[in-house]
Design a protein that fits this description.
mainly alpha
């Protein structure tokens, strides 16, 4: 009867087990660190892309600010002619032509539409976590300033705009308004300008125009501050991240 002998298996020593365990631990740890570094590089790259996109949004906004500031300053310049116009009407000189530029300039406004796509992504996609605190704080501060302006525009400014419109439509002769705002774009007012020469209503109109001028000046001031803030942020990020 044959007897099979099992080959002798060399038993590992305690130190070898420790060494193997240590090697496995180091391999897992290095893998973890490598993945962390990879994610860190990816997050940093994404953060820089957000910054670059935000700066492009700011450049669009500053162009809009410049246009609206000029528009508001033009409005204020025309509205500054209110005192002599009021004197002419109050003294009964019979000429109401000075009302035409006042009514036309106060009849409409350009609302500001902010380029906020990047900020919305930062908010909704958790992008702020990819930015350092200084960058995040500067963007949030700008966003707060923008929201404050939008609130001013949709409440106080719009209220004064509506009031001025509601009064001049009571004063104007229909034909003069049609001539003042023709579909063709060419305006030539020859018909009697006013439907009503009610002195109390005219006085109310000028009082509201006076307040409207102050609100326009406030709006222009807010726009200048926003433009300066946006311009400073563009320079800050361009210098910090060499975006040029």
């Amino acid at each position: 009867m044959e007897v099979h002998h099992h080959p002798d298996v060399e038993k590992k020593g305690f130190k070898e087990y420790i060494l193997e365990g240590l090697m496995i631990f180091l391999a897992v740890t290095m893998g973890f660190f490598a993945e962390t570094i990879r994610e860190g590089i990816s997050d940093k790259s994404k953060g820089h892309e957000y910054i670059r996109s935000f700066v492009q949004d700011l450049k669009h906004d500053t162009a809009s600010f410049s246009y609206l500031i000029r528009f508001d300053e033009k409005k204020v310049a025309v509205l500054n002619s209110m005192p002599p116009c009021f004197d002419t009407i109050e003294n009964g000189h019979g000429s109401f032509g000075c009302l035409v530029p006042l009514i036309k300039i106060a009849s409409f406004n350009h609302n500001l539409s902010f380029t906020d796509g990047t900020i919305q992504q930062l908010k909704n996609a958790g992008g702020f976590r990819l930015l350092n605190n200084a960058d995040k704080d500067s963007i949030v501060a700008y966003d707060h300033a923008v929201r404050a302006y939008e609130n001013f525009e949709s409440t106080l400014f719009q209220e004064r705009q509506d009031i001025v419109r509601s009064i001049y439509v009571k004063l104007l002769n229909y034909k003069s308004q049609a001539a003042m705002f023709p579909d063709s774009g060419k305006s030539e007012v020859k018909t009697p300008i006013l439907f009503s020469t009610d002195k109390a209503l005219l006085n109310e109109f000028f009082n509201d125009l006076f307040i409207y001028r102050r609100v326009n000046k406030s709006q222009a001031t807010m726009l200048k501050r926003l433009k300066n803030q946006a311009t400073a942020l563009i320079k800050y990020f361009d210098k910090k991240y060499d975006l040029e």
